[in-house]
Amino acid sequence: MGAELLDKPDVVSDILKSLRRELPADTAVSCKIRMLPTVEQTCDFMRMCEKSGANAVAVHLRTPQEDRRNKGAPAHWDDIAQLCSAVKIPVIANGDFFSRSHIEDFWQRYGAGHCAEEPDGFDVGPEAAATSAAAPAAVMIARGALWNPAVFSQQENVHFDDVVRNYIRTAERVNNVFFNTKWTLREMVTTDENKPASLNFAGLQGAALRRLKSKVDNMPNMSECCKLFGVDHDASAYPDKAFAVDYGYRWLPNADLTSSGAPLLAADGGAAVEASSPDPAELLCGGAEGGCGEMPVALGE
Length: 301
What we know:
Elements lengths: L8 H14 L7 E5 L4 H13 L4 E5 L3 H6 L10 H6 L5 E4 L5 H11 L14 H9 L4 E3 L2 H5 L12 H14 L4 H11 L17 H12 L4 H8 L17 H5 L12 E3 L5 E3 L5 H6 L1 H4 L11
Parallel strand pairs: 1-2, 2-3, 3-4
Antiparallel strand pairs: 5-6
Helix pairs in contact: 1-2, 8-11
């Protein structure tokens, strides 16, 4: 929900109650919020969401003001246990999950099973122990996944250049709308100061990275996109304007369908092949060829 609604709990409550009332009982209702000025206020807001019918709540561990004033302000990971202890519904943590190592570090420090350490001669007490036992149900990833889809891969040392090129190949193979492909690539080559240097295409930095970003901004079509990133592309293998936003509307009504109901797309040499969804592993690190390994399912931003 919009951050402005943090100042309007009654409106938020009405929205959640309406959703809970109108949706089927087996349909989960969740919401995502930011932190309020204090942890106590945030806990109260979460309790209101729970009481109003939310089945889960995601918390971006920053206040709106912190993002506006300082984009690099770290997320308040240390507050997650207290927030989780405030409600009985699942809590999803969000903020600063830029790499697989960040996620693993978070789970080690705040995941289920972690406990408060007791210095010699000091008893943390039952309240502190109860708070330390509270843990988030999942993490939510935003910028980290936009910058590098392989953040979901359990394979180590997936080269970022391969991730970018495999994304382009997959987008090309499924006739992804070029505007969407271009937008995603703009995120992958962003010059955001929080982005790890290991996620710079071809190791570019400074002015060279900004020039690449400018070229991505000005890419006119899929052919030029593939040329820029060194990906083979045979324009003759695809129908005219295959990557246009209105492509499906123009050809789908008159297309032949397979027995499974999937449309037939023109492939190399003009032959028709059945459209299919890509294996997520191919997008991340090359699929069978790249040996991505098992994909995690407990990650969600």
